[in-house]
Automatic annotation (TrEMBL), chain A:
The complex is probably composed of two ATP-binding proteins, two transmembrane proteins and a solute-binding protein. It comes from Sinobaca qinghaiensis. This is Quaternary amine transport ATP-binding protein. Pfam families: ABC_tran, CBS. Coiled coil: none annotated. Residues 279-336 form the CBS domain. The keyword Cell membrane applies. It comes from the Bacteria. Signal peptide: none annotated.
From TrEMBL, chain B:
It comes from the Bacteria. This is Glycine betaine/proline transport system permease protein. InterPro entries: MetI-like, MetI-like_sf. Gene3D superfamilies: MetI-like. It is found in: Cell membrane; Membrane. GO terms for cellular component: ATP-binding cassette (ABC) transporter complex. Residues 91-270 form the ABC transmembrane type-1 domain. One of its GO terms (biological process) is choline transport.
Length: 409, 279
């Protein structure tokens, strides 16, 4: 994917002596030391990362970590002290006011934690605001605002005022207002944090749905790790104004860079984050068109397992055979395992999260088959799932002997 | 304490006032301008006969102030009383002075308030000036006002403006500063220019507060009418002033009650604009 926004060493110092503070920052002095020496607060400390086109990039940190400051450096609601933010080859940090205004109008919209709606305007005219100040004619902006309201499911509320709507609906208005400009980039500052948990989850789902249709580049700020893991394609974790780690949810859970991140992710419900792909092993299988009971027995012996999947030449999953049946066939001298295939086997897909396959795993005593387009891609052992959920190392593909035996008996 | 000789403060101020009177041309045209506003407003109010104006004011009260029957009846009886006591023409004159002073206060005060809200430095400079304007006894303004504007309605208006303008400035400043940062950020984030932000977001949101300030300004201007009558501003104030001179309690109260009625009508009408803005 192409890089949409590139952030290089962006820094914000709050206070009267930013130059002095910057020097100290270059000498790797801590935030506290700089505060003591200059009376200035380091808001954002040389943050660098890239945001790819069309991804949901989550900036996550506790309060005071500088995440809300950071997002405001993107559209310069707060002026950066040093560093640069590149978008489509232009440096946001240094562009003049007129160009900046243009970027704010056309390329970047923002959604606010407490919605930031205009209370004296109707829903319709709130959503139209961004278009109105561009001087768009009323008919055209009415149509665009109508479309945006439809996207967020708020048709019929056009003539109400913000205070007549619930929090969740108000934030939909905030979202519609941001979408009406048809920006490339959406900045969402704790957009769902003021909503109660059930509504928050709905809004997260809806955002993912919308994102499926629109493919915007979304920079989402949150202090809630579950939210970050749920909606983020990639996450960056901030502490004291500095970026600690950037990566996919799985990378961050699996390889936390330091104690801070590790402590952070300690209590995460991993079953909601890890997918099947993560815990699957290479599948032991026989090809029914060329391999018979003897090969099957041999493979099971090698792998120390008690059953084996059966596929055709195209690797399409046919079912599973068990060692007792196979040895009987071998003794009878049959050439094909066709007659003993148990065809009703539970299957999962690569992208399924572990939470959703727990049930299957409970009711079967053979490994789960991972399929894609009905082709066997791998298998999941109960042991690997347990290992992943307990936070231990996930069994790497192929290394199956011990766990395999355990789960097969 | 008597080491220092007395500061010649009075002499300095006299010299300053003397020097200012050199700008005769400026003050003359100002006098003419203000005089023109007063007489125009007076002319408009004198145009309909008393009974018609009475009906118009009663209807305005009913429809603008939330269709309150009690208030409407009060206004009807109050105006009838003023007419009955023979103060109708005086009331028109007072109304003209008050409205002129209020209009000038708004035209000057609102922009200053906006400027204060935008620049901290301006706020720091203007605030003590406003304190000075409001705490200096109002009588004191009459003296230079006469020097610059002569005797009559105009110096009365000028003194009223100085005394009554501060609330409009303060409340405009306050109202704009009270607009929540997130709403301001939203206006900026969508690429508003400074004036778009002011006219489309800040002023509409500050409207109720600004209206409260304007209401205060009108009330203060009204409270100046008696004082202004000392330098020849005609109207209800003159009646009170004469009654004081003649030790005429009855006559004083008659005119006083007329001022109270006028105050209540103006107060309720302007307040209703404020609450409307809030909704």
């Amino acid at each position: 994917m192409a890089v949409k926004i590139q952030v290089e060493n962006i820094t914000k110092i709050f206070g009267k002596k930013p130059k002095k503070a910057l020097e100290l920052l270059d000498q790797n002095q801590s935030k506290d030391a700089i505060l003591k020496a200059t009376g200035n607060t380091v808001g954002v400390n040389k943050a660098s990362f890239e945001v790819e086109d069309g991804e949901i990039f989550v900036i996550m940190g506790l309060s005071g970590s500088g995440k809300s400051t950071l997002v405001r450096l993107f559209n310069r609601l707060i002026e950066p002290t040093a560093g640069s933010v590149w978008i489509d080859g232009e440096n946001l940090a240094t562009m003049d006011q007129k160009t900046l205004r243009d970027v704010r109008r056309k390329k970047m919209s923002m959604v606010f934690q407490k919605f930031g709606l205009f209370p004296f305007r109707t829903i319709q005219s709130n959503v139209e605001y961004g278009l109105e100040i561009q001087g768009m004619d009323p008919a055209e902006r009415k149509e665009k605002a109508g479309k945006a309201l439809e996207l967020v499911g708020l048709q019929g509320y056009e003539n109400m005022h913000p205070d007549e709507l619930s929090g969740g609906m108000q934030q939909r208005v905030g979202l519609a207002r941001a979408l009406a400009n048809d920006p490339d980039v959406l900045l969402m500052d704790e957009a769902f944090s003021a909503l109660d948990p059930l509504i928050r989850k709905d809004m997260q789902d809806e955002l993912l749905d919308l994102q499926g249709k629109m493919r915007k580049t979304i920079i989402f700020i949150t202090h809630d790790l579950d939210e970050a893991l749920r909606i983020g394609d990639r996450i960056t974790i901030m502490k004291d104004g500095a970026v600690i780690q950037t990566g996919t949810p799985e990378q961050i859970l699996m390889h936390p860079k330091d104690d801070y991140v590790e402590k952070f992710v300690e209590d995460v419900d991993r079953s909601k984050v890890f997918t099947v792909e993560h815990v699957m092993s290479r599948a032991e299988a026989i090809n029914i068109e060329k391999e018979g009971p003897r090969v099957a027995l041999q493979r099971m012996k090698e792998g120390n397992i008690s059953s084996i999947f059966v596929t055709n030449r195209q690797k399409e999953l046919l079912g599973v055979v068990h060692s007792s049946d196979v040895s009987r066939l071998a003794q009878e001298g049959k050439d094909s395992v066709e007659e003993i295939i148990e065809r009703n086997v539970p299957t999962v897909e690569k992208g399924t999260v572990l939470k959703d396959m727990m049930n299957l795993l409970t009711y079967t005593n053979i490994p789960l088959a991972v399929v894609e387009d009905n082709k066997l891609k791998g298998i999941v052992f109960r042991g690997s799932v347990m290992a992943a959920l307990s936070g231990g190392e996930v069994i790497e593909h192929g290394n199956t002997s011990e766990t395999a035996a355990g789960s097969m008996d | 304490m008597e080491i220092l000789p007395k500061l010649p403060l009075a002499a300095w101020i006299d010299a300053f006032v003397e020097w200012l009177t050199n700008a005769e041309f400026f003050f003359d045209s100002l006098t003419n301008g203000i005089g023109w506003i007063i007489s125009s407003i007076e002319a408009v109010f004198s145009l309909p006969p008393a009974w018609l104006l009475l009906i118009i004011i009663v209807l305005l009260t009913y429809f603008l102030a939330g269709r309150k029957i009690g208030l409407t009846i009060f206004v009807l009886l109050g105006l009838f009383l003023i007419d009955n006591l023979g103060f109708w023409d005086d009331m028109i004159l007072t109304l003209s002075i008050v409205l002129t002073a209020s209009i000038i206060s708004i035209v000057i005060g609102v922009p200053i308030g906006i400027w204060m809200a935008k620049k901290g430095l301006v706020e720091n400079v203007v605030k003590p000036v406003l304190d000075f304007m409001q705490t200096m006894p109002a009588f004191v303004y009459l003296i230079p006002a006469v020097a610059f504007f002569g005797i009559g309605m105009v110096p009365g208006v000028v003194a009223s403006v100085i005394f009554a303008m501060p609330p409009t400035i303060r409340f405009t400043n306050l109202g704009i500063r009270q607009v929540s940062t997130e709403v301001i950020e939203a206006a900026d984030a969508f690429g508003s220019t400074g004036s778009q932000k002011l006219f489309k977001v800040q002023l509409p949101m500050a409207k109720a507060t600004i209206m409260a300030g304007i209401n205060q300004t009108i009330m203060l201007a009204l409270s100046m009418v008696v004082i202004a009558s000392m330098i020849g501003a005609q109207g209800l104030g003159t009646a009170v002033y004469f009654a004081v001179g003649r030790n005429d309690a009855g006559g004083g109260f008659e005119a006083g009650i007329a001022i109270v009625v006028l105050a209540i009508i103006l107060d309720r009408l302007t307040q209703s604009f404020g609450t409307k803005a809030k909704q």
